[in-house]
Amino acid sequence: MKTARRNILYGLFLAAVLALGSVGTAAAAPTRAGETISNTATLTYEVGGVNQTPDDPIASNAAVFVVDRLVKPVVTADTGTVTGNNGTTQYLNFKVANHGNDRVDTTGTEETTKFVLTVAEGTLGFTPSVTYEYFNGTDWVAFTSGEVFSIPAAENLATDYLQVRIAGIFGVGANDERATYHLVATVVDEGGTNKLETTTASDTENVIAIDESGSYEGDDAADSVHSASSTFVLQSASLSISKTQIITAGGYGTEGTSYYLPGAIVEYTITLTNSGSTTADSVEVNDVIPDYTTYVSDSLEATASSAAQFIAAAGTDPAKIRVTYASIPGKTGEVSTVRTIKFKVEID
Predict the structure, then answer these.
(1) What tens digit of pLDDT does each residue of 39-54 get?
(2) Are residues 244 and 301 in the same domain?
(3) Residue 115, domain extent
(4) How far is CA 28 from the centre of its chain?
(5) Domain check: are 340 and 285 in the same one?
């Protein structure tokens, strides 16, 4: 990414964080890394009631230490799953926060921690078309996986974070197929290229990573990396059709054991099942009356249909029945939606 664009991103986000920081009651900011903390103890005493330190108390040596640098990236997903239908756009929303204590260099200049944000694919049952965006306080702005962001240490853990989202346009797929994405935040050095590793020099400013393990494979605890995942779930209609027949009259036997003889009445049953989560629209069923049979007048029945009709043969078009449904709802819980069509023919 070009330096100019990166600087623009930094500036926009810093403005956004300042705006966020004004919401709610901000906690006291942590002491910044690199600060030298020094103090001495003093002693006064008497002998026989006479002050032995009349001019100045006796001072101890100075106890001195440097505040170490706390590295703790925190990525959270707003929801575990987000559902959508073919052609719709849905969003996986994340928050990226810096729960560390940005350092102060030798000139007293504050150095804001840099994060590389990477989007990693998890298990993809279907493949939505995805783009990545962050909120700059006013608008959602596109970014590419692997860009560097400058995120100040949070003064209020509840409100100071960067909002990031993965926009997904759903395509065609089977009902309940899933596509998982991980948002990975890696703390890097001031150059924006190398991961900030833990150091343990005894008398200088150490770097101590205390981040937790995350969702992405290989994201271990205390590695200056944190990640979280969220999943798109495709909700679609899933229609199936089946057909059975039974002799209801004229088969010279009992129902179910009769024979397919001329003059027998055969009843067909067509079953439509929507086992998907989404409503199927504009459903149409056509069934040609088979050769050597004649449609039994007024025998067509169709539950919850919009229209059901027998269409007589015309020219080269054979006789048939046609049933239409404005819609067939998706399943309720684990119970599929079923529609039934019945009609009769007589064997010639």
Answers:
(1) 999 999 999 999 988 8
(2) yes
(3) 68-234
(4) 33
(5) yes
| 140 and 163 share one domain | yes
Would you state the pLDDT for residue 253? Answer: 63
pTM of the model: 0.73
**What residues contact 227, with CB distance under 8 A and at least 6 apart?**
75, 120, 182, 183, 184, 185, 214, 215, 216, 219
Alpha carbons 202 and 200: distance in angstroms, whole number: 6
Dihedral sign for Cα atoms in the order 79, 10, 118, 111: negative
Q: Is the domain of 206 the same as that of 260? A: no
Q: Quick check: is 290 in a domain?
A: yes
Total domains, the chain: 2
Q: Looking at residue 202, what is its pLDDT?
A: 66
Query: Are both 217 and 279 inside the same structural domain?
Result: no
With a cut of 50, which residues of the chain have pLDDT below it? 1-26
* Complete DSSP assignment for 69-138: EEE-EEEEES-SEEEE-TT-EEEEEEEEEE-S--EE-TTS-EEPPEEEEEEEEEEESS--EEEEEEE-SS
Sign of CA dihedral 218, 221, 226, 229: positive
Most distant pair of Cα atoms in the chain: their distance: 135
The closest of 297, 302, 266, 267 to 285, measured between CA atoms, is 302
C-alpha–C-alpha distance, residues 251 and 263, integer Å: 7
Residues 248 and 269 in one domain: yes
